[in-house]
Design a protein that fits this description.
Blueprint: E1 6-8, E2 17-31, E3 37-54, E4 63-65, H1 68-72
Antiparallel strand pairs: 1-4, 2-3
Bound molecules: zinc ion.
């Protein structure tokens, strides 16, 4: 599931947003014999974006979701959605 990109039409912000979302996920909880938990293979079964706010303006009044063709024309931020988190 690709995350949408947003744009604040008030200040032009493309990169900093507070996104409030409700997700239903299923993951593989892998315990060691000692009871230490490692959560693996998290699948997002459902996702609802509740609120998107511009970090700079502090409100979501002017934030719009970018159209897919609009996203392709912007400089790619290297968003590897399928890549494991680098820690
Ligand atoms: Zn803004």
């Amino acid at each position: 599931m690709a995350a949408p990109r947003y744009r604040c039409t008030a200040c032009g912000n493309l990169t900093r947003f507070d996104v409030t979302a409700t997700r239903t996920t299923r993951s593989f909880h892998h315990y060691t014999v000692g009871g230490e938990l490692q959560v693996e293979e998290t699948d997002v079964l459902a996702e609802h974006i509740d609120d998107v706010r511009c970090r700079w303006c502090g409100t979501g009044d002017a934030v719009v979701e970018m159209a897919p063709e609009e996203q392709l024309s912007t400089v790619e931020g290297g968003a590897g959605a399928d890549a494991p988190p680098a820690e």
